[in-house]
Specification:
The chain contains 11 helices and 10 strands. By secondary structure, it is α/β, with parallel strands linked by helices.
Amino acid sequence: MDNRPIGFFDSGVGGLTSIPHLFEKLPNEKVIFFGDTARTPYGSKSPNTINLFAQQIGDFLMAENVKMIVIACNTVSAIALDKLRERFPDIPIIGVISPTARVVANQCSANNKIGVMATKATVESGAYINKIIEKSDEKLSIFQIACPALVPLIEEGFTGTEIMRLTLKHYLDDFITNNKIDTLVLGCTHYPLVKEAIKNLYPKIKIISSSEEVIEAIAIELEKVDGFAVENNLSNRFYASDLSAGFTNMIKEVLGEKEERYSIRFKNLDI
């Protein structure tokens, strides 16, 4: 038993999309979430910068006495996971790419055409292709596309707009048609916020979300160390490096909970 919170972090609001899945599967768990909204997006930044930002956030979460860190960001998972594990060897640190790749490998065969939409940094790292191939016994067809405009639009609240629909079509129409994609991996935790728009545009395509698939990995790690929480009255805490109205509104939209169940706070990382 361990009632300490689980630390989640993301480059912005996207990682919030994992939290409802956690509460559904593990309702006793509490979270401390950090969204680096002042420095988002990460996807176009250099690996050195991404590693620096991730280490700063990891230091903050460790100071908050979390029992586990979940990198709820595909870009950071692709670039900084190993360095974070070296820096903080005493607690489990989980990224979103490996659990998602495992699901893709288990559910897809050589007959499938798999598309991965992600940030520029995630695509250039090759992390998804490498992890999916590593976990599959079959020769899979995997295609990638970087969608750099999506995260800024999502962060600015354009999720349900015509601008978003046209942007998705710009990136995905030819990508899906030319590669005959039948399975689409949302390789950024921001992208579930436009999942319905993607489904409306491409209703025949199966969608796999990294935000959802990471929860099973969390449960496995907690079971290893007997770290599950029991029912408690602790609050969930959500921090942002730029406490904008968009961050607050997104928490309310994603969680759909009464505000007394969580607190929203500003945290300056002294950058």
